Structure formats: C-alpha cells, structure tokens
Amino acid sequence: MSENNLVIKDDxxxxxxxxxxxxxxxxxxIKTFARDAWDRFxxxxxxxxxxxxxxxxxxxxxxxPMFAPYKFDTxxxxxxxxxxxxxxLFGTDKxxxxxxxxxxxxxxxxxxxGFSTAAINLVIGILYGGIAGYVGGRVDMVMMRxxxxxxxxxxxIYVVLILLVFGDSxxxxxxxxxxxxxxGMARQVRAQVMSLKEMEFSLAAKxxxxxxxxxxxxxxxxxxxxxxxxxxxxxxxxxxFTEAFLSxxxxxxxxxxxxxxxxxxxxxxxxxTQPIQIVWPVGAICLTILALNFVGDGIGEAFQxxxx
Length: 308
Fold this sequence. Notes:
CATH class: Mainly Alpha
Radius of gyration: 28 Å
Distance between the termini: 60 Å
Strand content: under 5%
CATH topology: MetI-like fold
Helix content: over 70%
Shape: flat
Number of domains: 1
Largest sheet: none
CATH superfamily: MetI-like
C-alpha cells in the first residue's frame, strides 16, 4: 500500500523542466516618472514637431546674429527694400538692414521675454497658491481677495503705467507682463493643493512629523506638477503674444530693440508696397506660438495618461 502511495505521489509531483520555468514570466521595463512621460510625449507627432521647431528657432536665435556677415542694425541705403536673395534670405527693410538677421535677433528678445516671464510666474504662482491652498481658512480668504482686487483692474492699464514710469526696456516689459500673469497659475496651484492635502500620503507625512514646508514642496507640489507644467507651457506663448501686440501698437519696447512685434510695427507702413516684409516677423510669431501650443498639448496628454 505504501509503494502505491509513493508511486502516486511521484506521478503527481514531477519536477518542472528547465525550459518551462520562465514560460509565464513577463518582462516589464522599469521606468521613472519622467521617462514614462517622455515616452508618451514622443507618440504625439505634432508635439515632437513643435519641440524640434522650438529647438531650431532657439539655435538660430543664438548663432545667426553671432556669425552672420551683417549686424541687425547695419544699414545699406543703396540696397533698400530688396527682395529675398541668396545674399539676403529675407530681403532688406527700408533702411537696407538684413531682415533675416533682425528676425533672428528679435527671436532672442521675444523668446527671452516669454520664457523668463513664464519662469517668474511659475515661482510666484507656486508659492502664493501653495500657501493659500495649504494653510486655508482666513489666510486663504485674504490671499484670494487680494487676487480678486488685482484681477479686477484691466491688465493693459498696469502695462501702460509701468512702461510710462519705468521706461520701454526689456525689464519693464517683463515686470508689466508678470504683474498679473501669475494669477492663473496661483489659482490652479491652490486648487490642486487643496485637493491633495486631504489624501492619505499627505496625512501620513504629517503624522510622522514632516514639516509643513516639506509636505507642501516635497509631496503636494510634486504631485501637482503635471497640470503646473502644462500651464507653464501655455504661459510662454501668452507672454510672447503680449509683447508682440504691445510693440506692434507702439507702446512696447524701445524702437532700437528689434523684437518681433517691433519688426512687424516697422513693416506696417509698407504693407501695401512691400507686403512680404511683414510676413517674416508675423510668421515667426505665429509658428512659434503654434509650436508652443503643440508642445503644451503633448505634455498635457503625457501627464494625463500618467495620472489615469
């Protein structure tokens, strides 16, 4: 009887062949948060095209004014309003200045204003909105009422007053744009922090003795980073368009500073006789804003897919 039981036991428990041991093993690549978001971003073709365009534009803005045979303010009165050619890719303006070099130099100004103001608004919005959302109560009420008062006054009034008081410099333009642009970022950060601070990981961090600043910066802001980055990418084209619009209507930067809006304003008087001249700065503005919107949509889809 024992031998039969042994035979049955041996029949039921046969060693698994070596080739079958890993037959159900599924290999999964370990990805970080940033790597996973980048992989999702690359699947959006328009976002990749927009990113490539921005990189090319930034490189051209850096190197073309440095190595071009013409300076952005070099005049050639004998070669005014020339059509595009191999010597002048975009032609020349009414003073004989090379339009291609001026557009690339203007990219420095416009992109610098766009990215710098977005970075400043990011810092102010995160700190202001984060504190209001995390502390709550009377502090939140007072801070939000201050935002309501600032937002009640049209932003164009702030811009005009600052440019009149501090002059038409790049710093004044950045200050004018930043004065009210951070409000949207602050409100979004506040809403994200208020929803995240009641979740389990935030309460657990508080129970183990983490400081309020650590909880806010290391836990709440980090987990709200997706919507914040998406808003950041949308603030850059807004700042570029604001600068271009103000310069186009004549209340922007100093006339000696060839930003895209100032270049478009210079070509406005020749729109019927030399319409091609206004195409270059306006086209640069439109394509850059379009590329930034594509990149923002790609980032939004990447982070949204990550958080689902």
